[in-house]
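Researcher: Can you fold this with adenosine-5'-triphosphate in place?
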Amino acid sequence: MTRIYTFTNQKGGVGKTTTVVNIAAAMADWGRRVLLVDIDPQSNATTCLGVDPRTLPSSIYDVLMGEQSVTEVIRGTRWPGLDILPSAPALAGATVELNRIADPRERAEHLKRVLASIDDYDYLLIDSPPSLGVLTVNALSAAHAVIVPVQCEYLALEGLAQLMRTISLVQRGLNPALTVRGVVLTMYDSRTTLSRQVAEEIRKHFPRQVFEAIIPRSVRLSEAPSFGEPGIFYAPRSSGALAYRMLTWELLRGDGYTPDWAPPAGEATVQLTTEATENF
Ligand code: ATP
Ligand code: MG
């Protein structure tokens, strides 16, 4: 069975793209077949996998508009098992086109229909834009579950509460089977009280939904996109890479697949706990 996860948060710059790219990379590295679906006109996930969105002959835009078949547009990457359905700036135009469709279900299920024809992957991971517009609604309609990256900063909880309300609206209308697969705490800075407080507060409100693994603030993760590489390959020994490995390990195990992996030597005592990840 192919699992479809949408990475979403209407707040910008919280680590959606960094998270989906690194999870996709770690999954592929552990033998899962993964298609990263970029439905953000910013095309950051596409760039992070070394594909230049400006020079692509076709993109997810052409697929959504019915002008190309999805298999024509999917591209391989440098990394075995990791493919991309790329975005391009033209995708911004799709918002206008889709909003012209009067029927809400018809409007919201374009991506779902496209992805229904794909069955060669273990995972379809969708990176969505920082808005609750028609592209994000398409990404929520198409998914089995959402993964929500949350930056450990002031007002994170308010944004999260708003997102949960949106998700329940989608559950009531378009996609009753949609679940929350988990909340990922990102850009955690163990030196600040604020980061610690926000992480604690989010765990308190969503006790069963927050992943144990926490992603620290890591310069190496922020450098990786300019090299067109996921952080876990660009700087495999960095704290950020290790944290994304642990997160992916936790996710895959929860899905019933245990990768043959242990934290690298010297990190062997690291447990999937808040306290331990602070020391990265
Ligand atoms: P958008 O809403 O614009 O799509 P996003 O939610 O996808 O943004 P990212 O693009 O992943 O967020 O991250 C925003 C910025 O923060 C990027 O410059 C990224 O490199 C950086 N960043 C993400 N995660 C980390 C981290 N753990 N440590 C340091 N920098 C990070
Ligand atoms: Mg993004």
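Model: Folded with adenosine-5'-triphosphate in place. The first strand starts at residue 3 and ends at 7.
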